[in-house]
Amino acid sequence: MLSKSKAALHRLYLRSPLWRMKISTKITCLYAAILLIVLMFTSIIMGLGIYFSFYHEADREINIAMEGVKRGLGSSGSLQEFLEAGSVVPPGIVLRVTDLTGRVVYETDSRYPSLDMVEKYRVKNPPFWADKSMDVVAFDRFTIYHATMDVVDHGQVYQMHFFRTITTENYFLEHLQQLIFIITIIGFIVALLAGYFLSSRILQPIRDLTQTARKIEVERMDRRIEVPPAHDELAELASTFNHMLDRLERGFQQQQRFVSDASHELRTPVTVILGYSDLLSRWGSSDKKILEEGITAIRSEAEDMQDLIEKLLFLARADQKRQILHKDVINLAEVVDDAVRKMQLVTKKHTLTLAENEAGLIFADPATMRQMMRIFLENAVKYTPEGGHIEVASRCVPAEKAMRLTFADNGIGIAEEDQSKIFERFYRADTSRTKQAGSVGGTGLGLSIASWIAEQHDIAIDVESQLGQGTKFILTIPLADEQTIKEHGQQA
Ligand code: ADP
Question: DSSP class of residue 281?
């Protein structure tokens, strides 16, 4: 029921011209309307209050006078006696006594309008606040109450007429009403103008925001909106908007750098391939040595390119949140063992040992976990000179409810200033040292992928490294909790 009437109200609002107005106009109209209602309400209440108190005061006094007369008549012997005693009614009340023929036999004020006049000016429909037992008589300048009471004296019926002035200044009251009306209208207009001016001023930052938003282009993302000094909602909106732009700008710059770095990385192998194909087209058919060398080089470059493209695609999928992970409860020891054994098969010039491999159930995607371990192992091999030693160890740390997996090598190490940057995309530490290690050098994407995978599994990565001494990557992998183990069971 409520939602129906709400929907009907909403439809009415959409049909009205109100919803197409500017917010400042809407606020102004709304507040001016509220003010008008309040002003009208108070002036009506005030006007009614004035009239009500005048009428009430008058009928109260007439009633008191009538009571007094009744009591006086009871204690005196006759009407004549009572009237002659004097001060029969309190001041302000006029008493007139008539006999059956309508002749005035007594009156306290002869200047008061005659009974004929009173009858002539009697109000047919008195206001609702008037006493129903009395007549209201409205003359031009003043209004009076008229009440009657019959008395019997010595067999004769007399009628007592009580009068009391309600208002002496009808003109004044009319003027007062007009004045209140004019003040209401002026107040309304002032509220309308002031409201419009103020709401326009207050909403100025929103207009600025719109202007700035209009001017922002992909090429001009450095524009920012001016944050108003007040700590209000608009200042908050402006600074949130600016922060959003900061993030967008940073993201956009990263994207641009990524594209240019990727193109740059692809250019080298393509140039090499083109160079060798030229060489082959010229000498390949006659010189077998050149033919073999060319084919090997082209193949190696193509493999590098394939590796780079695979990594780029992985990161692109990760950025677009399209990289799907199939998490399950798995035994970390099995994954570590598998990764190390595979690496041992291809590592001929280094010793690779698995010092310790404790069992531990983790909730992870086995494929990406293997990929991450391969990255650390390949790096350790790449950045450790021939004959070097690589040690992998996996221990359970019950206090942290985690597994501690370490990859330690005695290779070239990473300089202090590079350690925080190696996880950035395309970042490679000093290439001259890399050459010393006899490595071909990588793409600078491996650790970015590893850190993305780690992030997806709540894994913390720490680096301990000293130049010339070696590097140790320490991974803290959370153990699966009992609830997860129950839900998924051990699949691995
Ligand atoms: P890359 O393909 O160049 O290996 P990574 O993102 O895997 O890219 O690594 C980034 C950089 O971190 C490497 O260029 C290298 O300088 C440094 N690095 C990574 N692992 C090691 C390590 N085990 N020993 C020394 N330096 C390392």
Answer: I
Beta strands in 194-334 (DSSP E): 328-331
Give kind and range of the element (H or E) at residue 95.
strand 93-98
Can you tell me which atom of ligand 1 is nearest the CA of 407?
23
**358 CB-side CA count, 13 A:** 13
pLDDT digits (tens, 9 = 90+) for 471-482: 999 999 999 999
Tell me what the mean pLDDT of segment 238-266 comes to: 88
Q: What is the pLDDT of residue 286?
A: 86
Closest-lying ligand 1 atom to the alpha carbon of residue 413: 25
Give, for ligand 1, the residue of 314, 347, 373, 382 to mutate: max count of ligand atoms closer than 8 Å to Cβ.
382
Task: Give the pocket of ligand 1 (CB within 6 Å).
Answer: 375, 379-380, 382-383, 409, 411-414, 422, 427-429, 442-448, 471
**pTM of the model as a whole:** 0.61
Sketch out the chain's domains with CATH numbers.
21-202 (3.30.450), 233-317 (1.10.287.130), 325-487 (3.30.565.10)
311-322 pLDDT, tens per residue?
A: 999 998 998 888
Distance CA 383, CA 431 (A): 11
* Separation between Cα atoms, residue 465 and residue 3, nearest integer Å: 66
Contact 98, 105 (CB under 8 A): yes
